[in-house]
Every structure is written in structure tokens, then in C-alpha cells.
């Protein structure tokens, strides 16, 4: 059984993580649908073809430095992220 002191220490630890390590406490939830993507290009990396990802959210969560991206779909169309 946790005592009052243990609860205060736990709260202090959680607050410390939130202040000093916000990336540890934050998370991004992506929709769970998959488009038929051949490859991905981004304005931030001209000339680079990135491997296919199911959707923009899943790609950008794994490539946070990329911006101005387009999904190139297997039917020849593109979708802006």
C-alpha cells in the first residue's frame, strides 16, 4: 500500500519528466489506414525518394525533419501531406 510520501514522490517524478523531458511524455496517434503508396518525396530533401509509408502521419512521425511531402500513389496520383 502506497503511503502519502510515496504518492508525493511519484507526482514529483512525473512532473519532473513533463518539465525536463517533454518528448518522453508526449505522443502522436496516427490514423490506422493504409494507402497504396509507391514512394514519398519531400521539398526538404530534393531528389530523394523515401520508402512507402501507409499515410502522411506515419511517415512524418518517423521523419520529423521532413516537410512539404507528397505521397506518390500506385495509380499515378499524388497526395500532399
> Could you estimate the helical fraction of the residues in percent?
25-40%
Number of helices: 3
Number of domains: 1
State the secondary-structure class: alpha+beta
* Uncertain spans: none
Estimate what percentage of residues fall within beta strands: 15-25%
- Termini separation comes to 49 Å
What sequence of helices (H) and strands (E) makes up the elements? Answer: HHEEHEE
Rg (CA only): 20 Å
Overall pLDDT confidence: 81
Morphology call: globular
- What's the count of strands? 4
Strands across the major sheet, in which order? 2-1-3-4
Largest sheet: 4 strands, antiparallel
What is the topology?
Blueprint: H1 4-20, H2 22-25, E1 37-42, E2 50-51, H3 56-62, E3 69-73, E4 78-80
Antiparallel strand pairs: 1-2, 1-3, 3-4
Quick tags:
about 80 residues; alpha+beta; 3 helices; 4 strands
Characterization of the model:
- This protein is of the alpha+beta class and 81 residues long.
- The protein has one domain (4-80).
- The chain has three helices and four strands.
- It has helices at 4-20, 22-25, 56-62; strands spanning 37-42, 50-51, 69-73, 78-80.
- A four-stranded antiparallel β-sheet has the order 2-1-3-4, with no helix packed on it.
- The longest helix is centred in the N-terminal third of the chain and has 17 residues, at 4-20.
- It is globular.
- The model has no long low-confidence stretch (mean pLDDT 81).
Amino acid at each position: 500500500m502506497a503511503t502519502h510520501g510515496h504518492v508525493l514522490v511519484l507526482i514529483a517524478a512525473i512532473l519532473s519528466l513533463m518539465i525536463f523531458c517533454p518528448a518522453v511524455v508526449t505522443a502522436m496517434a496516427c490514423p490506422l489506414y493504409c494507402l497504396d503508396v509507391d514512394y514519398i518525396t519531400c521539398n526538404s530533401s530534393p531528389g530523394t525518394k523515401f520508402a512507402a509509408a501507409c499515410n502522411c502521419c506515419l511517415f512524418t512521425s518517423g521523419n520529423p525533419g521532413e516537410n512539404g511531402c507528397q505521397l506518390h500513389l500506385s495509380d499515378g496520383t499524388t497526395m500532399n501531406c
